[in-house]
Amino acid sequence: MSEVLREWSENASAWQKHNATIRTMFAPLTAAMIEEAGITGGRKVLDVAGGPGEPSLTIAETVGPAGSVMCTDAVAEMVAAAETEAKRRGLTNVAFRQCLADSLPFDDNSFDAVVSRLGVMFFPDVPAALREMLRVLKPQGALCFAIWGKNELNPFTFCVQNVISRYVEMPPVGPDDPGAFRFAESGKLAGLLAQAGAVDVRERELNFRLEAPISVQQFWEMRSATSGTLREKLATLSEDEARRAALEVQESVQEFFPNGQMSFPAQMLLISGRKR
Ligand SMILES: C[S@@+](CC[C@H](N)C(=O)[O-])C[C@H]1O[C@@H](n2cnc3c(N)ncnc32)[C@H](O)[C@@H]1O
After folding, report:
1. Is residue 183 situated within a structural domain?
2. How far is CA 30 from the centre of its chain?
3. Do the Cβ atoms of 57 and 49 come closer than 8 Å?
4. Which domain, by its residues, includes 23?
5. Is residue 29 lining ligand 1, measured as CB closer than 6 Å?
6. 102 or 232, which is more confident?
7. At 96, is the secondary structure helix, strand, or coil?
8. Looking at the predicted structure, is the pLDDT value of residue 61 above 90?
9. From the CA of 14, how far away is ligand 1's center (Å)?
10. Residue 229 forms part of a structural domain
11. Of 54, 36, 68, whose CA–CA distance to 118 is shortest?
12. Distance 261 CA to ligand 1 centre (A)
């Protein structure tokens, strides 16, 4: 198993635990993806790297009983978490499959739309994954990817990084290394999608607020558990350093908790296209 997938499999229980918060805070992103990909009742949709179930489960509600969703992820624990959540919500039009983005176990021309929310930046061979997603799409079918915009525009990430970098050395991240901001540069993923053969490729900047009814302490509990990179860095600190770092992060994000609830400005990119 690659280093990236090992990290995600260790993250799975934390993502499951914080599933409701994650679903709430990314709900505007999911709604924008559904709109960009033109997903409506009756459509057959593939979600690649669906983690513990989003945007799959929201899309399952959108496509209704006449439609269906195939929720996939490389990590078995993530797929199991998504399945548990679907059962809890009584959704019967979603199926689940553990698979890699660059090796999808589906026939050519199978889906009306393929989506991936915050997943593509972690794939080892992105051009191969894009070609594979185009292969399983029906002609004229839609693709939509949601990715993080620049770190400096997202206090949800940079406030934490600024504090942690004072405690732990942050090795430089190469522009093509798997990681949250790999495609933050405008045009980068859109260019790869066009090279893979998609048509009508476009990029939309989505400015919204990451909001959820959680306190500063709950924010830190979630952030420190759901990011593998952060968890590994925190594990190298002494108990005292870890306590101080946690307090400093909570102080630095305080302004984004008006009325005691989380509300960060965020910028993400939606990259969409169509199969010829
Ligand atoms: C940031 S999470 C996003 C999960 C979910 N889509 C969401 O937005 O909440 C990234 C997901 O990508 C999955 N992943 C990473 N590399 C993958 C690959 N090569 N193929 C399929 N899934 C992969 C991880 O297991 C993880 O669940």
Report:
1. yes
2. 10
3. no
4. 3-151+177-211+265-274
5. no
6. 102
7. strand
8. yes
9. 14
10. no
11. 54
12. 27
State in Å: Cα 21 to ligand 1 middle.
17
Q: pLDDT at residue 177 above 90? A: yes
pLDDT at residue number 39? 98
Q: Which residue has the tokens 């045009």?
A: 187
pLDDT category of residue 239 using cuts at 50, 70 and 90: very high
Helix 216-226 and helix 3-17, axial crossing angle in degrees, nearest 10: 150
* CA-wise closest residue to 184 among 154, 222, 224: 154
Cβ of 104 less than 6 Å from ligand 1: no
Work out how many domains the chain is built from and give that number.
Answer: 1
Identify whether 78 is part of a domain: yes
The verdict on pTM exceeding 0.85 is yes
Query: Does 75 sit in the ligand 1 pocket, CB within 6 Å?
Result: yes
Within its chain, how far is the Cα of 63 from the centroid? Answer: 21
| 55 domain-assigned | yes
- 117 CB within 6 A, ligand 1: yes
- DSSP H helices, the chain, are 3-17, 19-25, 27-36, 56-63, 76-88, 126-136, 155-164, 188-195, 216-226, 228-234, 239-252
| Nearest atom (ligand 1) to Cα of 49 | 22
- Whether residue 100 is predicted with pLDDT greater than 90 in this model: the reply is yes
pLDDT tens-digit series, residues 134-166:
999 999 999 999 999 999 999 999 999 999 999
Q: Reply yes or no on whether the pLDDT at 242 is more than 90.
A: yes
Tokens found for residue 131: 């070609």
What pLDDT is attached to residue 210? 98
Q: What is the CATH number of the domain that holds 27?
A: 3.40.50.150
